[in-house]
Model the fold of this input.
Amino acid sequence: MLRGQLARPGGYHPGRAAGIAERLMGVKLGAAQEEALGVWGEVYGKTSGALHGAAAEAGRAARLYAEVLAAARELLVPLPGRAARVLEFTALTRPGPEHALELARWADPRATAFFLRSRPAPAWLALLQQHAPHLLLPDAPAGGVGPAAAFLEDLAATDPRTAGAWLAEHAEAVAAAGRPALDVVLRLAGRDTSMVPTALVRTALAGQTAGRPAGEPAGWRVVGWTLRLAAEWAAAVPPPDRDRDCRDWVLVAELLLRATVDAEYAGAHHHRAALAEYAGTTRGQLDTMTSPRRPFCGSSSTTRTTTPR
Done:
């Protein structure tokens, strides 16, 4: 906690704002919303200074009031109240820096997710990368999930050169955020093998395979889907490109073979464990059903006989 305060002081007030926002919206805020809520620490510092005798200057009170009002609006306005603005942003074909900065201040993750999944114009990529790069990256604490995946996939279909240039620079960081993010990179690489270099695919896949949690009950199924995407990419690479990047492509193929065997073994192990657990539960239930009934309290298993007088 102390290290976090040293890296970014004023975390107490954004934390309180996050609690208010989560109660109002009923959703959990992610890493992208930390940037939007960071304004509360700055606003509190400025207003506190003004109240405790900071140097007065012309227009300071008016500017502080405008900042507080804007921050409160982003925090307190419900999703229906900002729906019109979200739709306006999705319709922009030539957005400007002011639009990207406003988007970065949205504290409602549902609004940001809706915008990124609504196929905004390709011009947004450069603006977001310059003014709000955290919105393009997946949420690592949430396991690698991020709404920008839909935007990047649509961009790869409409403007593969622009999407490829961005992925070539950020694919490794995106894939390291978690398996869902790695799946996005592999899916894009499988659609256009020139979009992601072979060396990056090898590095990203090796990092996630090595970091697979051991003993996770359903983990082998998730790994299997990732391996399928990687296999589709490997098969889609043209033979001349395989020869050019022979070492990296062969290493990916070896990694796929090892990971596939490991995933199959893990699946068989969990299947046997589930069957054994089910058999033990069933046997216990049968033993309970077939056990002899105990006599009622006070009764005797022997019958009393009386002799006639």
About this structure: The CA atoms of residues 106 and 166 lie 24 Å apart. Confidence is low (pLDDT under 50) at residues 1-9, 213-220, 299-305.
